[in-house]
Recover the amino acids of this structure.
């Protein structure tokens, strides 16, 4: 049975077109025509949400903010506004991706498929004895199989995309990883690399991760080179 998506848009025509497109791709689809209805219809069976920003009564930002207080379900913003500020706000609130209306049908499907693949951790984890079942640095523990993040045994809520960024940085801990590489491997090769999106996800991680006991930063930005997950003081000198 296909993944279940929740389409949230106050334009009935767009909502119907999206439902038809997604059902042709094998998805099960629920539709909500405003933010309040979206929160009422959302439950644990929803695998991904397509969320319009500009809606009466409760806009997409408010819906996402309420969802992120409890859930990490993947969210793609749909909006007619080509506004950099809106993109940044959406990503900071925990959106996983952002696509403008009118959008190309195949691009939208590609983004949905890529995002869903990155949330199916039981299918994504490779049988590789060289890969650790858990990453532990200082008091931080990250478990790829459970998609969980703990610091000093306290759970830290991160979105699916933030977890992907953190995991990729951990897999390359002590090494510089470029923004282009993060964009391609985390956002998906189907995407046009969006450096600003990666920057916002990294910024969110910095805000959520408590200070290290050794006083070092978790993630170091190297101008024109990319990011580095710091292991020890030698990395911090780069």
């Amino acid at each position: 049975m296909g993944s279940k998506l929740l389409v949230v848009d106050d334009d009935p025509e767009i909502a119907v077109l999206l439902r038809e497109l997604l059902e042709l791709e094998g998805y099960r689809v629920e539709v909500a025509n405003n933010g309040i209805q979206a929160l009422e219809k959302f439950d644990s069976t929803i695998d991904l949400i397509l969320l319009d920003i500009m809606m009466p009564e409760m806009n997409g930002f408010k819906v996402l903010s309420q969802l992120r207080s409890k859930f990490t379900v993947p969210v793609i913003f749909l909006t007619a506004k080509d506004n950099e500020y809106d993109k940044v706000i959406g990503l900071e609130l925990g959106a996983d991706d952002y696509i403008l209306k009118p959008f190309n049908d195949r691009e939208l499907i590609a983004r949905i498929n890529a995002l869903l693949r990155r949330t199916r951790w039981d299918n994504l984890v490779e049988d590789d004895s060289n890969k650790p079942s858990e990453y532990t640095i200082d008091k931080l523990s990250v478990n790829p199989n459970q998609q969980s993040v703990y610091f000093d045994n306290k759970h830290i809520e991160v979105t699916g995309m933030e977890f992907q960024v953190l995991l990729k940085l951990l897999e390359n801990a002590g090494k510089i990883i470029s923004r282009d590489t993060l964009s391609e491997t985390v956002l998906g090769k189907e995407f046009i690399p969006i450096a600003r999106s990666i920057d916002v996800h990294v910024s969110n991680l910095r805000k959520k991760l408590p200070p290290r006991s050794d006083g070092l930063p978790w993630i170091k930005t190297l101008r024109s080179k990319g990011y580095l997950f710091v292991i020890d003081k030698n990395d911090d000198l780069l």
Remarks:
- The chain has two domains: 4-117, 127-236.
